[in-house]
Write a structure and sequence with these properties.
Layout: H1 12-28, E1 36-39, E2 46-48, H2 52-57, H3 75-88, E3 99-101, H4 103-110, E4 116-120, H5 124-134, E5 140-143, H6 147-154, E6 162-166, H7 175-189, E7 194-200, H8 204-216, E8 222-228, E9 238-244, H9 250-265, E10 272-280, E11 283-284
Parallel strand pairs: 1-4, 1-6, 4-5, 6-7
Antiparallel strand pairs: 2-3, 7-9, 8-9, 8-10, 10-11
Helix pairs in contact: 1-3, 1-4, 1-9, 3-9, 6-7
Bound molecules: S-adenosylmethionine.
Amino acid sequence: MNYRHSFHAGNFADVFKHIFITRILLYLCLKETPFRVIDTHAGEGFYDLNCEEANRTSEWRQGIGRLSDFKDIDKSLFSLIQHYLLCVGIDEKNQSLDHYPGSPMIASRLMRRQDRAIYCELHPEASSQLRRRFAHDRRIKTFQIDGYIGLGAFIPPKERRGLVLIDPPFEQKDEITTLLSSFLLAYRKWPTGVYVIWYPIKTPDFDRKLRAEFFNNNISRTLRLSMNIGGQADGLKNTGLLIVNPPFTLEDEARALLPSLTRLLAQGEDASYQIDWVVREGVIEG
Ligand SMILES: C[S@@+](CC[C@H](N)C(=O)[O-])C[C@H]1O[C@@H](n2cnc3c(N)ncnc32)[C@H](O)[C@@H]1O
């Protein structure tokens, strides 16, 4: 396990993923009844943007760094990302950024007293930082286990409402096979949960394979969102989210925010985004 998220925290892929996670959690908060968050690959939870790893890549400067000044953000985008910016700690008065919250911290900042979360992280160091970070939050349990084992063990949650984030580092060659088989087992046990699967789009083949698997497995409503920042630089440019059982409002929100968010994060003229349904109301989209 070589991957450390501290090299990448706050980059464009984090911003893209965390904005949609925030929208989903805000939707879950509309009802008083409790929900559960299960984060299978949680990371450390909170990242120092001045640490050596972050300095070495500076990826965050082209991600959250571009959202740190409100005057660069147009009004319609702002209304949809203001809660996310608050979770990150950016407000009108304090626009200097020195830390970035990971998905566990963002979720904990939006959860209410009645909500619960389970965070799994396998890397010993990341996991002990995660444990320390949330040791005093009684709503949250952290586990140093394989996230796919956690997925099998913790689903379905007793609340029967909630969000599962599956966000592996894609270090393993067969990651997608493991991810899909674990997801399908979880989905069969809990078909009404909201599942968010993050993935890098490295080749069109990979994207097609993932979508084909969803087609073939009778998954219900699945929205796919992707963002390609374009440009010449090497490294990750194109990422996607598969969102199973998305809130009914999410497609419209994505249509409202992705054009300006993509412009804001673009590295080249060829930046683009996509919004499409893999499966819509049980009907497979061709
Ligand atoms: C992309 S990062 C997670 C980022 C986090 N979800 C966020 O959005 O802030 C992936 C994490 O998965 C951890 N990891 C790798 N393999 C794992 C496994 N099999 N089970 C649980 N965690 C794993 C890595 O150590 C890394 O911290």
